[in-house]
Amino acid sequence: MKTAVVTFHAAYNYGAVLQAYSLQKALEEAGFEPQMVDYWPETREAASKSMMSPLKGLKGLVINLLTLINYSNIRERRRRFDDFRRWAWKKSELRYQSNEHLLELLPNAELFITGSDQVWNPSSGIDPAYFLEFAVQSGRATASYAASIGVPDVQGDDARAMAPLIAAIERISVREHRAAEIVRNLTGRDAQVVVDPVFLQTAEQWNTLVKDPGITGDYLLVYAVRRRRYMEDIIRQIKQRYGLKVVLIPGTNPAARGFISADRVVWDAGPADFVSLFAHAKAVCTNSFHGTAFSIIYNKPFVSVSHTKGDSRVTSILERLDQRWRQLKEGDDLPEQFLSDFDCTSILDYHTRESFSFLNSLKKR
């Protein structure tokens, strides 16, 4: 079955690119003929080009100075992202920029899937293309896979806009239990909770991307999408207690979101380098959902430090794996058992099989 996927892939963001890659691989494994819809909304395309911080004053000046010093490495990282997108998945011949453009020149597919990532987060703007409104109008089969809303609640104008868009989708699955509750509140429909696409590949399958990161000795890998002082406190505790060197992957746009000091900063890591650094790490400290996800995939001791008041994405997956204690908030100390071995493979396999069952059910319409 020819299947078109609409998701966030038009970003220099590790999670966005790797979840899209893994979803395509999973669809192929399930017997679909997938292609990524090359959807680059004008707003997202413009935002993805910026490398300089919008912050004013001394803080903005210091961050932009760091960016300029590492400008060539950051450009190299973006080149590696672009190369990965070129070879890692099949995509539509046309590049689309709006829901109307998609409706006018509909991609050739029998089934359209939206997801994963925060495609339904209203704080990013409600784009009907990520709700497959163009495919619904064209009478094509539609489904969401692991769509994430990313906020604890949806009300007011956002609720009124999103409710009919979600209700029109034939088969609905989401990534978090809270998202399922929101869908039920908005539409009266039940949504199946499935795992993020990165979990649809095993560590062995991800290892096809892995190479030697060129780092000697054991290291604590830090992946921070935003700088938080209490996260830096946890990193210092880990370094002092276990003597691990700190290797940092800066976030998607370190100039805009702040910078954490480390023994080594890998400014130029592309998507495959990102996976490689997780595969070889001794332990991980992150405030990213996908940083948490790859720690789980590779059974790495980790802590996930909340960078907002609540992160239902991380909470949902850790509760399912009985690892909630690894999610820290401001004021928490490093757990004594931080570096203890753990293996979530069997529990994760169960949830992965359930998620593949959802994908396989999409063949029946």
UniProtKB/TrEMBL annotation:
Record-listed E.C. numbers: 2.4.-.-
Highest taxon of the lineage: Bacteria
InterPro entries in UniProt: Polysacch_pyruvyl_Trfase
A GO term, aspect molecular function: glycosyltransferase activity
Keyword terms: Glycosyltransferase, Transferase
One Pfam short name: PS_pyruv_trans
Residues of the Polysaccharide pyruvyl transferase domain: 13-307
Protein name, entry field: Polysaccharide pyruvyl transferase family protein
Organism: Isoalcanivorax beigongshangi
